Amino acid sequence: MIPVVVYPDAQAAIIEYLADELPFYGYTTPIVVSRVPTTRPIEFVKVIRIGGQNHDIVCDDATLIVEAWAASEEDASDLIEVCRGIIHAAPGTLTDPVCSKVIEIAGPANLPDPDSNQERQTMTLQVTLRGSQLTPTSS
Length: 139
Known about the structure:
CATH class: Alpha Beta
Order of helices and strands: EHEEEHEEE
Strand content: 35-45%
Low-confidence stretches: none
Number of helices: 2
Oligomer: single chain
CATH topology: STM4215-like
Shape: elongated
Structural class: alpha+beta
Number of domains: 1
Largest sheet: 5 strands, mixed
Number of strands: 7
Radius of gyration: 16 Å
Strand order of the largest sheet: 2-3-4-6-5
Mean pLDDT: 93
């Protein structure tokens, strides 16, 4: 019988991981979200899952877009670079859920927000997270 494996919510895991880690690198004001806030702060990070696939029965390869907004192009660039470094450090650091690999699909790019004209940098990463076997509750 093939086990039933469920995978963690990669988007939520990386949002929480960045929110926990950014203050250690001097970023205390940016919030990390999955949607642009109604009241747009000057600095924030958005993480969304755009797809991916499980590459075996144990691991899920989630494709994520990470975007960093800030007051200036330089500040947005600095923020995305710190996020980039933090996420690349996830294997061995992020343990709940377990992250085993990060692959950069597209590195940071300058892409100002067309709706607000606010400075924004964006990147695309693949994050591999370990699933867990689901135990049946009845036979």
